Amino acid sequence: MIAVVLNFIEQQLLDDLEVELRKREESITSEELKLEMEKEEMIKEREAIIRTTNEDVGMLELVEDQRKENELLRKKIVELEAKKTALDKSVI
């Protein structure tokens, strides 16, 4: 009789432990999913930052190219003005 009661108590304890284990596994799985979602969000944010940075770099390159082109145009204007001045003097 005592053995039956002990077996019953043991089975109850095992059942309780199994339920607790399942709860913990579900909790861990839930945390893993939450962390995975946070990880994906961080990846998206990083990709957005990279895209923005690449766009900024592209704009800086464009500005630098424009600056160089403007400098070349300024030099060309100075050359043309010098030629115009020389022509004006030769006509007079």
Describe this entry's structure for a reader.
With 92 residues, the chain is mostly helical. Helix content is 98%, strand content 0%. It has one helix and no strands. The protein has one helix spanning 2-91. The radius of gyration is 39 Å and the shape is rod-shaped. The protein starts with a helix and ends with a helix. The model has no long low-confidence stretch (mean pLDDT 93). Residues 63-90 form a coiled coil. Keywords: Coiled coil.
Question: What brief labels describe this structure?
Answer:
98% helix; 1 helix; coiled coil; 0% strand; 92 residues; mainly alpha; rod-shaped
List the SSEs and their pairings.
Elements (H helix, E strand, L loop, with lengths): L1 H90 L1
Task: Please count the beta strands (DSSP E, at least 2 residues each).
Answer: 0
**Please, what is the average pLDDT?**
93
Q: Approximately how much beta-strand content do the residues carry?
A: under 5%
Largest sheet: none
| Global Rg | 39 Å
SSE-based structural type = mainly alpha
Contiguous uncertain segments of 5+ residues: none
Percent helix, as a range, is: over 70%
Q: Name the shape in a single word.
A: rod-shaped
Order of helices and strands: H
Keywords: Coiled coil
Coiled coil: 63-90
What's the gist of this structure?
This protein is mainly alpha-helical and 92 residues long. It has 1 helix and no strands.
